[in-house]
Design goal:
The protein is mainly alpha-helical. It has one domain. The chain contains 13 helices and 2 strands; from the N terminus they run H-H-H-H-H-H-H-H-H-H-H-H-H-E-E. The protein has a two-stranded antiparallel ribbon. The protein starts with a helix and ends in a 14-residue tail after the last strand. This is Zinc-ribbon domain-containing protein. It comes from Diplocloster modestus. Residues 298-319 are annotated as: Disordered. The chain crosses the membrane at residues 20-42, 48-69, 206-225, 231-250.
């Protein structure tokens, strides 16, 4: 199923996002009218003060609505997208399915928020580390522009990697949410080439879509307010809010589906190399925290086995002789050990 098909078939979630964005705009507009009325009573100085208050008030309204409602709508949408990409079908009652999957996977919204924040912070820290490597080559003529453009591609891709990792948690149901999210970050790191290529295409789409959105919103609203003789500032602010709603509900959803389609296409077939965990832990304190929380989750599969697949049934288990010929990775520190090692040579933990 293509990204375009998934976008159209999961339209109920996009409509829900439009509704939440519309509610944000409505409350912000009402707050603006009230505060500007109060400021008008106190003259120009009062207008400036109430305008500053309105900016902070609008930010608070957006935070409350998007944090407690928007995040859960996005999580349900991600669950349905993951199902569509991996199975090729959309659940009959997709809204109910998404809600059930989020409740089953994360138990409470607080767990979902914690996983999402840790993943987002981790990939940002990893991005900064990559950026430092690029900056070290700035002495080469023209390299600054190349690395800057590359980092821009990466920043777009990393902007949606948390959604991709959350999608992987819905796919990898036999593991805890923190463990699956940590695996998701590693899978992203191992498949950076196809995902970076998708990010480059996504960048072009973002620019084109935002130009269309800006012209389609700012021009008619500006003309309307000019004809009616209303405040140009109010027209600009209203246009900004509406453009943000369209971007949040439609543009961001389409980009998220594009990235998840590529990511979920390679994730199920990716064999995780556990030595990459220690490297990412060294680059990001937040990833290390995510990794540690994954190890603390109850009923987790052994970290000593390399690979993402669940433990096979006894009938399908590989021959013991084959396991002895492969290196063993420590579940505590990720260090590589010789076959048959009982205790890790790096940290001493039992294998």
């Amino acid at each position: 199923m293509t990204a375009k098909e998934i976008f159209h078939k999961t339209m109920p979630f996009n409509i829900a996002k439009l509704a939440l964005g519309g509610l944000t705009v409505l409350l912000s507009a009402l707050l603006f009218a009230i505060l500007m009325g109060i400021g008008w009573l106190f003259g120009e100085g009062g207008m400036i003060v109430t305008f500053i208050i309105w900016i902070f008030g609008t930010g608070f309204i957006r935070f409350v609505i998007m944090h407690y409602l928007g995040y859960l709508v996005k999580a349900g949408h991600i669950a349905v997208i993951a199902e569509a990409v991996t199975t090729g079908r959309i659940p009959d009652n997709q809204v109910a399915y998404g809600k059930a999957q989020v409740t089953k996977r994360f138990l409470t919204s607080n767990i979902y928020f914690a996983v999402d924040k840790l993943v987002s912070a981790a990939v940002k820290q990893i991005q900064k580390a990559v950026g430092k490597v690029g900056n070290a080559l700035d002495f080469i003529p023209g390299m600054g522009a190349v690395t800057g453009l590359a980092q821009f591609f990466v920043s777009i891709s990393l902007g949606y990697v948390d959604e991709c990792c959350l999608g992987y948690t819905f796919y990898q149901k036999e593991q805890g949410a923190f463990k699956s999210a940590a695996d998701g970050v590693v899978i992203y790191a191992q498949n950076w080439k196809p995902l970076l290529g998708s990010a480059a295409k996504t960048m072009l789409k973002v620019i084109l879509l935002m130009v269309v959105v800006a012209l389609g919103i700012f021009v008619p609203i500006g003309l309307l307010f000019k004809v009616l003789g209303w405040s140009p500032l109010a027209a600009f602010l209203l246009a900004c809010l509406i453009a943000w709603v369209v971007k949040y509900a439609l543009v961001d959803s389409y980009i998220m589906i594009q990235m998840m389609t590529v990511y979920m296409g390679v994730a199920p077939n990716t064999q995780i190399t556990f030595d990459l965990y220690s490297k990412l832990c060294g680059l990001s304190a937040k990833f290390k925290e995510l990794f540690q929380k994954g190890k603390e989750e109850p009923s987790q599969p052994s970290y000593a086995a390399a690979g993402t697949a669940p433990a096979p049934s006894p009938a399908a288990a590989p021959a013991p002789a084959r396991a002895e010929t492969k290196p063993v990775f420590c579940g505590q520190c990720g260090a590589k050990n010789e076959p048959g090692t009982k205790f890790c040579g790096s940290c001493g933990a039992r294998m």
